[in-house]
Amino acid sequence: MEGQLRYDLVVLGSGPAGRRAAVQAAKLGKSVLVVDNRDRVGGVSVHTGTIPSKTLRETALNLSGWRERGFYGRAYRVKRDISGADLAMRLDKTLTHEIEVLEHQFARNGVQTLVGAGRFLDPHRIAISAPGGERVVEAGRILIAVGTQPFRPDSIPFDGRSIVDSDEFIANPRVPRSLTVIGAGVIGLEYATVFAAMDVPVTLVEPRRQLLEFIDQEVVEHLVYQLRDSGMRLLLGTELDRIVPSSEGPVCHLADGRQLRSEMVLYTAGRQGATAPLDLARCGLEADPRGRLRVDPATYQTDIGHIYAAGDVIGFPSLAATSMEQGRAAACHAFCAPLPKAGSHFPIGIYAVPELSSAGLSEEAAREQGLAYECGVARFRETSRGQIMGMDSGMLKLIFAMPSRKLLGVHIVGEGATELVHIGQAVIELGGTIDYFIDNSFNYPTLAEAYKIASLDAWNRIRHCSAEVVEIGPRAIRQ
């Protein structure tokens, strides 16, 4: 980038939203600069978020033998003593691969990158504090995609070792003898269940009385039963008062008077947009108290027309998959290219142990909207593949509209949930009905066969709702 001072697009952040926007703009023939304050590209997703946490999960499941315990019992282990070094080795290998793929993608599309911290000088100029000195660049369009960072209240005595946030843990992974997780959102739940799979005694503290309120609650109840059955201690509806460090391990004092001592406390009670260093006031923008930016949900423009924002920094749903599409849409709008048609029902994936995934309406949402519906449920143990895999838990739930029989929602908890959900997502987006699952063949034996089982379960209820002939595909079934 030597000598170049103006770009068609400057992207602040190289996570999922930033990378997709940069490549899309480059393919439209625009000059693009990506600025990131880390030594290598990838953003939060690659360095401290999505990729590291999912790599940690896979490492834990493989080394612990968790997937085989249905056959060999809960005492089964692949590796008796799992260490922080085991976790770090796989993390390093996976992250290096991800970064190299991204660097190659930028290079072949002509996207320039610069390591440094960017801040606004005015609505079009950005100062970049780089290792070689400060540079100032001008941008026709700007995308803010700096992601988020852990929320760190001043009252929590973080020390980077025994009282940590999720970023600090990834920087120095280890396996504690006992763990208390504060906050049972997606991140807290994922880390708590991963360590529980490695047989670490885990206590999960959450002030709300319900877990994952945006997920179908029947599926969540199935998860909660599994967690408690595995030995995890769940303290729902419980407030944290304070954490007191000690030589024997930090002590969490709860508002109800109870005290929890563990070797490590992982604080995961929320994240905030990493916008504080950007000097947003100089470009006319203002973040909310959690550092997030307001955008037009169709174009991802901020209140300043040529400045866009995408990814976790704009809030819900804060998923890598949706962030990528937001970044691409922002780049298309910025340079007057046709906007991609976004699907109405993006999938949610929660990589706990076991996984949860959903698309479409939950039963609670269908009820709130006053829709007539019927549900069908399949247990993974009812499938031959489930038996082959030794699965004694896991379920798939389908919600169908009545009387149209269109699929409204799919909700899954269990091994492979985040892969299986896309079948239901496609059927929802295409306006498919229960007929698809009943009339079509599924590979056998597969977990996907649960779609047919759940559909037949729903049909057994639907057919008793009316004495009239109900058409299912080419057949007619009369009571």
Keywords for this structure?
31% helix, single chain, 14 helices, seven-stranded mixed sheet, globular, alpha/beta, 479 residues, five-stranded parallel sheet
Distance between the termini: 74 Å
Percentage of residues in DSSP E strands = 15-25%
Describe the sheet with the most strands. 7 strands, mixed
**Secondary structure category:** alpha/beta
Helix content: 25-40%
* Number of distinct beta strands: 24
Are there runs of 5+ residues with pLDDT below 50, and where?
Answer: 467-479
Write structural notes for this entry.
The longest helix is centred in the first third of the chain and has 25 residues, at 84-108. The protein has 14 helices and 24 strands. Helix 1 runs parallel beside helix 9 (320-334) and helix 3 runs parallel beside helix 7 (186-197). The protein is of the alpha/beta class. The relative contact order is 0.12. Helix 8 (217-229) links the parallel strand 10 (202-206) and strand 11 (233-236). The model is unreliable at 467-479 (pLDDT under 50). The N and C termini lie far apart (74 Å).
Write a concise synopsis of the structure shown.
The protein is α/β, with parallel strands linked by helices and 479 residues long. The protein has 14 helices and 24 strands. It is globular and about 65 Å long.
